[in-house]
Design a protein that fits this description.
GO terms for molecular function: hydrolase activity. InterPro entries: NUDIX_hydrolase-like_dom_sf (IPR015797), NUDIX_hydrolase_CS (IPR020084), NUDIX_hydrolase_dom (IPR000086). Pfam families: NUDIX. It comes from Pseudogemmatithrix spongiicola. This protein is an alpha+beta fold. The chain has a single domain, classed as Nucleoside Triphosphate Pyrophosphohydrolase (Alpha-Beta Complex). The chain is 25% helix and 36% strand. It contains four helices and seven strands. Strands 1, 2, 3, 4, 5, 6 and 7 form a seven-stranded mixed β-sheet that branches. A hairpin with a 4-residue loop joins strand 5 (68-79) and strand 6. Helix 2 (115-121) runs antiparallel to helix 3 (125-138). The radius of gyration is 15 Å and the shape is globular. The chain starts with 6 loop residues before the first strand and ends in a 5-residue tail after the last helix.
């Protein structure tokens, strides 16, 4: 059986003096789900690996390049307009604390938030769960050897 994954989600984290912050992006007017707050989300291009798609989407939507990338989970969802079940690969990206954000066309606002603030800000319940999973794994370095993705 071959399962094709065509969507990625990326929780971007940066280290701060008292722990970690997570990035939230607000969808611009005229885009799908305008006004909603989300993590990085995008499609996997033909021939692209899931980690490469995560790194590319992170850069396209924020201008950020990860120092580390962790595999977090897989997320199935039903896409109503297409009438299809999709599967998203979820990653955690650790970015430099002082890296500037350069927003892409899809978003008009961004915020670096504490984990609890991000949990309240994200519009989608599954993104709040992904945030919690990613944060738990981020704080469990003994499992990073099997979750860390080699960056090219």
């Amino acid at each position: 059986m071959n399962i094709e994954v065509r969507v990625i989600d990326v929780v971007a984290f940066r280290p701060v003096e008292r722990g970690w912050q997570a990035l939230a992006l607000r969808r611009r007017a005229g885009t799908r789900c305008a006004g909603s707050w989300e993590m990085v989300h995008g499609k996997v291009m033909e021939g692209e690996t899931l980690p490469d798609a995560a790194v590319r989407e992170l850069f396209e939507e924020t201008g950020l390049k990860p120092e580390r990338l962790l595999s977090v989970t897989m997320h199935p969802f039903y896409l109503v307009p297409q009438g299809s079940v999709q599967l998203a690969a979820v990653f955690a990206a650790i970015v430099p604390p002082d890296a500037p954000i350069v927003r892409g066309e899809e978003h008009d606002k961004h915020a670096w938030l504490t984990i609890s603030q991000a949990r309240r800000r994200y519009s989608w319940p599954h993104e709040r769960r992904h945030l919690d999973d990613a944060y738990a794994l981020l704080r469990t370095p003994e499992v990073h050897d099997v979750l860390t993705v080699a960056l090219s």
